[in-house]
Amino acid sequence: MSAPLSGEIEFVTAVIAGQLFGIPIARVHDVFEAERITHVPLAPSEISGVLNLRGRVVTALDMRKRLGLPPSENAKKQMAIGIDHGGEAYGLLVDSMGEVLKLSSDALDPVPINLNKDWAAVSAGIYRLEDRLMVVLDVDNILDFKKDTLAA
Amino acid sequence: MEDLLREFLTETSESLDVVDNELVRFEQEPNNDEILGRIFRLVHTIKGTCGFIGLPRLEALAHAAETVMGKFRDGSPVTSEAVSLVLATIDRLKSILAELEATQAEPAGSDGDLIVQLEQMALDGAAAMPAKEDVTIGTLSPQVLERPLRPGEVSLDELERAFRDTPGPEEKKEKREADRRTGDRRSTDGTSSASQTLRVSVDTVERLMTMVSELVLTRNQLLEIVRRHSESEFKVPLQRLSNVTAELQEGVMKTRMQPIGNAWAKLPRIVRDLARELGKDIELEMHGAETELDRQVLDIIRDPLTHMVRNSADHGLEMPEDRVKAGKPAKGTIRLSAYQASGQIVIEIADDGRGLNTAKIRKRAIEVGLISEDDHPSEAQLHKMIFTPGFSTAEKVTSVSGRGVGMDVVKTNIDQIGGTIDLKSTQGRGSTFSIKIPLTLAIVPALIVQSGGERYAIPQVAVVELVHRGSNANLVEEINGALVLRLRDKLLPLLSLNQLLKLPKQNVSDAEAFVVVMQVGTSVFGIVVDDVLHTEEIVVKPVASSLRDIKVLGGNTILGDGSVILILDPNGIADQVGATREERTTDSFSAKGHSTGDDALKSVSMLMFRSGSGALKAVPLSLVTRLEEIEASKIERSSGRPMVQYRGGLMPLVPADESAKLAEEGMQPLLVFTDGGRSVGLIVDEIVDIVEDRLEIKVTSETPGVLGSAIIRDQATEIIDVAHFLPLGFADWFHGNPGGANEKKKLLFVDDSAFFRNMLAPVLQAAGYEVSAVAGGKEALALIERGLQFDIVVTDIEMPGFDGYALNEALRANVRTAHLPVIALSSSLSAAAVAKSERAGMHAYVAKFDRRGLLQALKTACVEMQEAA
Q1: H or E stretch covering B432
Q2: pLDDT tens-digit readout, B423-468
Q3: Which chain A residues are Cβ-neighbours of B565 within 8 angstroms?
Q4: ipTM of predicted assembly, 2 dp
Q5: How far is the C-alpha of B462 from the C-alpha of B586, rounded, in Å?
Q6: Percentages (nearest 5) of helix, strand, coil residues in chain B
Q7: Is A23 in CB contact (< 8 Å) with chain B?
Q8: Residue B281: how many other CB atoms lie within 10 Å
Q9: In whole angstroms, how far apart are CA B262 and each of B17, B288, B291, B298?
Q10: Nearest to B592 by CA among B627, B624, B629, B628
Q11: Is A115 in CB contact (< 8 Å) with chain B?
Q12: Which letter, b or e, does each residue of B389-410 get, where b requires 16 or more Cβ atoms within 10 Å of its Cβ?
């Protein structure tokens, strides 16, 4: 995670199953509403499908599945965080978007050892915000789910 | 400087490849001054450029090689050793170049070994030359160089002498004129055409292609929007945009095309070296090197081709003494050929060697557990097993082909680009591998189908035909859970797309399901889908790496309506079906029953049969929908006409010849023709054969129902006119089938190119038109004069003799046809041409490759007709 010289990092935040998550803004391409997702048969269960985002095919990843959470109950509009990984476009499906936060890189706490291993594998650290905790997501590890599923 | 170096590297490595091949040719024709001259010039240029850029190692080597070549030119004998030495020098040059490319600097090292040999060779060569007086006119003043000579350098004395010996300008001029007289071959070697070409980096072309693909997508989306709003002022400019896009797409595709010869360039050298190494005598023939294909495709097949040629040389061809024993010439031949056929490139690698050893393959197949001792697969099936991973029957691993790369890798590479590989082999006679690959990978026509509520695209190259289960519901049967379809005289393995993709079972009644019959290589199978929607040109986009393990998916694409759909990979599906069928099944499945145009020059599959008076009769196989045998007792009579219950309806039977009799008992063979949903059975006595031959009608006939006579397989054969027999059966049919508003529109399609007729006729049929395709304006008018009715005419503009404008004029002049909407098709789309067609009263003007535009134009024409009526 490349930290700017000032030691402050901006995070795009999102809520998944009530938990706040953050992704460094440098990795985020755009935030969009995921519509008309085409289901990909035989795909790993984490992949919800593919969709068209302004002429680009984006592979949508269900973050709830990825984090081992049950599917969302209220089926309102589905938000996605667009990221690039190895030249390919992915959209991380989340429950809702939060605000952009500017946080000092010094304040990042390591991942607690008792965190569920699915979560620990995709977490880069924890921020203690005033009212809640924010889990920083490691984008590359999130998309490296193939070896987990294959091993399983 | 960097640019200069890069350019130098490209140019030099190209030149070296040429020198490689020219040398191999030169070795065979040592007296061909022209070849020698070319080699000499190329080596000389390399030397000069190296000296200019300051690459002393390369310069010294090239210089030494040039010296030897110079001796050849002066008449010293061309020995195989000398050529080998020069070739070795070229290899060294190449390896230095490779390092230069990697490190941007000439690697340190010495080439003294080669240079010494080359110099020795030059001296020996000189000694072997017929004694020539070495007289130099003038005085030579001894000159002294202040440092020792570098390898490859000559002393100043020698240089001086060389100057004096070199012919003066006048002599040269004479020689050049002589050269010019020796033939026009020289003009092709690049100097004159250089100014007409431009070197563009591959990246630029790739980027251009990506942009065009995006443009095509956007255009498709716009067309989709306009289609929903029929009265839109965007329609006309969008049509123009669509045409321009189609042309741009063509143009950019063309820039990506490269002759396949580029992939073959290294082969003559490889074969020569192999021949020497193996002690064999091998001739490499290359045909169709100018056949062009997409460079992306070219890059992928380059290595497989090389590997297969190596294989042929190593395993395929026998040692000279064995060949002689077998009564074959000592020199073995490997023949490479490439040609374009129906939107694909076919590459064949044939050798006249020993052929595949079926017994050995069988043994090996049992060893690796592909088959058991009790299995007895056919020869063709055994041959295919060499494409299985880990299957190599070579007794010893030779340095030539025993590199751990087997035919399975070749197959994988070819599969990857949607191609197929096949082989034919006869023991003792040789083997032929044929590879079929698509022209391009970027944009492909695809069939859009629906299953489990989602749409999927199937590349059309793999689609043979569509069968609607609605009318033949009982034809899909089950053997222990495996679905099969009776199609004509074959049993077709079926796979349900829903099952294949593990889709939720959709509530679609069987009656609505379609079977997409696909052919991959020689395996033919059917995929059951819920619905078939339409065809569309799609831009193939690769799927994300996390989805690449799904073998049945070949990519994804964005459709005109903006949704993303997945592209099925025919090869992946074929692997799932696991169906390896024998060669011959393919013939019977290629009958499509589409266009009615014959091409006199191309060879046509003809169905030969006997009927009545004994004379052999034939009909183009493509017109026959099915071959049937029915029990004579099942033939019924209705108002004096023979009929048979067929697929849930009554099918009238028509004798192929007046003297033909219906069988009283036993089986009655029939040829079934289907047109616009109606079928007619042609009564024949006996089906003789299916032959592939040129159709050249020698004598035209006055007999109704006979087009004329042709010589097929050395036998006089009557070619029957299907168009004559269909109405004979239909006459009764019209009563029971009152023509309603939903009757199919009859479309007359005129194009002189058989290719376009075959390509567009199915598209038009699929769009719901009843198509009659003819090869020219005269033929079109003849059909109308015969009383056939049409609702709409689609005609090519550029046709020899009687062109599209002339046809339009003739139609306008006739009261019966003056109201017919005429749609012009053309490959050139200038504003002037569009205006001309408008003045001529044509309904629309569409680019030939713009199927979507054509269908749209047809739709509007039909709507207008209905409104007018």
Answers
A1: strand B430-438
A2: 888 888 888 998 888 766 667 788 999 888 889 999 887 888 888 7
A3: 38
A4: 0.83
A5: 13
A6: 40, 25, 30
A7: no
A8: 16
A9: 10, 12, 10, 8
A10: B624
A11: no
A12: eebbbeeeeeebbeeebbbebb
